[in-house]
Automatic annotation (TrEMBL):
InterPro entries: ComplexI_NDUFA9_subunit, NAD(P)-bd_dom, NAD(P)-bd_dom_sf. It comes from the Bacteria. This is SDR family oxidoreductase. Residues 8-173 form the NAD(P)-binding domain. GO terms for molecular function: protein-containing complex binding.
Length: 250
């Protein structure tokens, strides 16, 4: 039976991917610092990868600060890929972000592009899943855009997506043949970042005021209305924002 190692398998997406693989009868092993595997230092990696056929990297940097996040994704990916080659892994799956290449002013996006480049150059068969922002991430976006009691965000359209749908897509990709390319995964409807934040905060009775501001930056980057929209071949997931919001405790 194929063994799937999920780096970041204790995180939001990772724990769902592990559960979905196990539900389908596969052997999936979470690998993260809390299970004794550190992709940055390499601690525990050779043992974790010993019998793996597929590695799914859905880890994330503990710090979102520009230098820390670049250091995290370059160091962890640079230690994972040779360890996978040494272990005879046949498919590396990684989770990146729709539009990452369009936002060089964002330190986080620069780090994801650096991660993607290392994977493409590694010689390992790979699939890069570029997902849109998760519905679950809108609170963090609003928090980063808050000054006092005001949230400033542009009306940039995104096809945000439920984390559970992303985990299903990552699982499907991991069970398939390596794409040696990108697969975009998005939600069903384009909604402005400002409106997503407005609806999320209203649902939580959060008193902050969301102001539409075309000059407001998104993690350091200026966005036009269509910068974050996917290409025509994107996989479109089903869960609508309103359906997801109804499942969230207000
Ligand atoms: N947020 C979005 O809207 C969005 C959109 C598209 C793509 N993505 C991508 O989705 C991925 C997963 O995000 P998430 O929100 O599920 O992350 P998360 O919940 O923050 O989980 C992070 C995971 O990374 C693990 N980790 C941290 N340091 C590690 C290390 N040194 N070695 C190995 N594992 C380590 C953590 O392990 P412990 O639990 O042991 O600390 C945890 O399992 C990220 O790569 C992100 O770029 C996010």
């Amino acid at each position: 039976m194929a063994i799937f190692v999920v780096v970041g398998g204790t995180g939001m997406i990772g724990s769902k991917v592990v559960a979905k693989l196990v539900e389908r009868g596969h052997h999936a092993v979470p690998a993260s610092p809390s299970t004794g595997v550190d992709a940055v230092t390499g601690d525990g990696l050779p043992g974790a990868l010993a019998d793996a056929q597929v590695v799914i990297d859905v880890s994330n940097s503990p710090s979102l600060e520009d230098e820390a996040v670049l250091d995290f994704f370059t160091t962890s990916t640079s230690s994972l890929l040779p360890a996978e080659i040494a272990a005879g892994v046949g498919h590396h799956v990684a989770l990146s972000i729709v539009g990452a290449d369009q936002l060089p002013d964002s330190g986080y996006m620069r780090a994801k592009i650096a991660q993607e480049q290392l994977i493409k150059q590694s010689g390992l068969p790979y699939s890069i899943v570029r997902a849109a922002q998760f519905y679950e991430f809108i609170d963090t976006i609003a928090d980063f855009a808050t000054n006092g009691s005001t949230v400033r965000l542009p009306h940039a359209l995104i096809q945000a997506v439920a984390a559970d749908d992303v985990a299903s897509a990552v699982t499907r990709v991991a069970l398939g043949e390596p794409a040696d390319g990108m697969i975009e995964v998005v939600g069903p409807e384009p909604i402005g970042l400002d409106d997503l934040a407005r609806r999320t905060l209203a649902h939580r009775s959060d008193p902050r005021d969301v102001v539409t501001d075309p000059d407001a930056r998104y993690f350091g980057a200026l966005l036009s209305e269509r910068t974050l929209l996917p290409g025509v071949k994107a996989v479109v997931c089903e869960t609508r924002f309103s359906e997801w919001l109804n499942t969230v405790t207000s």
